[in-house]
Amino acid sequence: MRKQIINCKRLYHQNQYFFNPKADLKTVLREQIPIKIQGFNEMKKKYGDRVMGEITVNQALGGMRGIRALFYDQSTVDPIDGVMFRGYSIPELHELLPKLRKPSAEDFQSDQQPLPEGLFFLLLTGELPSYHQVELIRHEWDVRGKVSDELINFINRLDNKMHPMTMLSLAILYEQKTSKFAQLYNESKLNKSNYWEYTYEDSVDLIAKLPRIAATIYRKKFKDGKPIAHKDGLDWSAQLAHMMGFEGQETLNELLRAFLTIHADHEGGEVSTHASHLVGSALGDPYLCMTTAYTGLAGPLHGLANQEVLKWILNFVEVHGYDVTNRQIEDYVNTTVLSGRLVPGYGHAVLRRPDPRFLHLYDFGNKYLRDNEMIRLLHQMTDVIPRRLRTFKNISSPYPNVDCHSGALLYQLGIQEYQFYTVLFAISRSIGCLTNLVWCRAFGLPIERPESADLAYYNNLFQNKIPKQEKDDQ
Ligand code: AMX
Description:
This protein is mainly α. Among the domains are: 142-300 and 419-443, Citrate Synthase, domain 1; 305-416, CATH 1.10.230.10. The protein has helices at residues 2-10, 25-47, 57-61, 90-96, 116-125, 131-144, 149-156, 164-175, 180-186, 195-222, 236-244, 250-262, 271-281, 286-297, 305-320, 326-338, 356-368, 373-389, 403-412, 421-443, 455-461, 468-473; strands at residues 75-78, 82-85. A two-stranded antiparallel ribbon has the order 1-2. Helix 5 (116-125) packs parallel to helix 20 (421-443) and helix 13 (271-281) runs parallel beside helix 20 (421-443). The structure holds amidocarboxymethyldethia coenzyme *A. Amidocarboxymethyldethia coenzyme *A (AMX) is lined by residues 301-303, 305, 337, 342-349, 394-397, 401-403. Amidocarboxymethyldethia coenzyme *A is lined by residues 301-303, 305, 337, 342-349, 394-397, 401-403.
């Protein structure tokens, strides 16, 4: 089965080349880049002048929904099947990506969660890494994850009234002074052919430092502010849990491995990913790009939804408890929607079925927390709420999205400060945004610069008041 899936997926890559499962990530990337650039240039030469579609005025005014005009190679989102990471679905990745412990022949179907380190390799190269390659990454992130006392002091001096996402953005902006890309560019030592390399170096540094930065924010905002020393030998997710103060809690470590893997990427049009892509197109270094991504993610329609879900559930529980009727849930949904508010954790701009990332976390809850009262309530809600939301004709998708379940799992496994949940999303999303950035630099994508038009233009366009020549020019 495993071999079949892998062979089938490898056809997904246009350019085949010999993949050495012993080579380190940067070597694999260095070998792939010229081959992929060739494929990219050939496609552009062949089809560059072809027309891809039409745009309606509603699309232009409606958040550009459904306009396919971005290039993004590492993941796709299908309205029914959901996200595919380099052609692999979430259940396939659950099976195929390396885990903390290599399963023996007998427990090949072992249900451990994949390591996000492996997803980083897959998103960058399109290849499933070996255990050896993931171990190299784990070690490298461990070594590069140390941060300066200056940065820790900077975080610890921030106003505790700030949201943790604001603290994260500020911490990354502060750390921008360590950008190798920015420094070398400033010294005129970069040229277009090595942009990707220093983007890669900054990306690895930034990703490696995230557990320490996030844990510092967590302990400053919610605990006693005392840092917990880094522990050698842990994977990225377990290191984060350890430094937050959750020592040796293996179920939480497993949840974080799952969480940090499935939130990493969701094609190129999402607010956070697109924001980082846009800033990157002006040659902003990875620190600038990720600050933008994080501020985009911090909006309640996007990444903040995971904290909103938990708040919404806790408000309900405060009144009704955990043992409730379907009718009580329906009434709560009605009250929320009819008062012009959102039911967080439901709906999506693209998906038209339950999000496979939600389903993955649902299974996790079933496996580890089946008898937990909040998880039981959540499962009841995910049954009842879509039926109720469907009755509101304006809502395109009544189904649970990725944020529906994550907060309740984190809450039950000890992370009860729900303002922190979006920071966890941000840590994971960094993997997707930054791998994209490396490839944008390798392909030499230009500055992004679509055009806008004023109200008069839209009014005049269909009354033939704009001469044809001017229309074409615009
Ligand atoms: N509760 C109440 N109303 C909702 C709704 C929900 N869960 N989902 C959509 N709607 C409303 C919209 O606000 C919009 O109202 P309007 O007609 O007054 O403008 C209408 O239904 C049509 O919206 P849509 O086409 O179904 O969705 P969209 O593409 O405009 O927005 C999304 C998608 C995710 C922003 C929206 O479903 C939403 O706000 N959901 C709740 C917040 C949430 O869970 N966000 C997380 C999404 C995943 C992520 O990025 N992390």
